[in-house]
Design goal:
binds zinc ion, 5 strands, three-stranded antiparallel beta sheet, 113 residues, alpha+beta, Cysteine Rich Protein, two-stranded antiparallel ribbon
Length: 113
């Protein structure tokens, strides 16, 4: 399959998943109470929310922050992954205090349950 075709299919797949409110982690559909919206149109089951790097799940101490997945292709569509604040801090070389600010200034980027 040519690369463009594969990319187009992947993009369509993501759009459909959004429309159907499929959890990016387990790909099953989410329904109201069992899920949280971590980013616009991106629903995760509560049990499926975990850090993309260390698999830590959110708790009182640990907020989960959505961040764009790194890719070599600058034209690639943005794919968001959840990170715990510790991994987020490491990945983006910031501090946990700054992250508290981020969550306050741009709540759509930060997520706490
Ligand atoms: Zn799930
Ligand atoms: Zn982590």
């Amino acid at each position: 399959m040519p690369r463009e075709e594969a990319e187009r299919q992947a993009a369509e797949e993501r759009e459909r998943a959004k429309r159907e409110r499929r959890c990016p982690e387990c790909t099953n559909k989410t329904f109201g109470e069992d899920s949280e919206m971590l980013a616009p149109d991106l629903y995760y089951h509560r049990g499926c929310i975990k850090c993309a790097l260390c698999s830590r799940q959110p708790d009182n101490e640990t907020s989960i922050i959505m961040a764009a997945r790194e890719t070599d292709d600058v034209f690639a569509p943005e794919i968001l992954d959840p990170y715990c604040k510790f991994c987020y801090a490491k990945k983006f070389k910031t501090s946990a205090i700054k992250i508290a600010d981020i969550v306050e200034i741009a709540p759509e980027l930060g997520f706490c349950i």
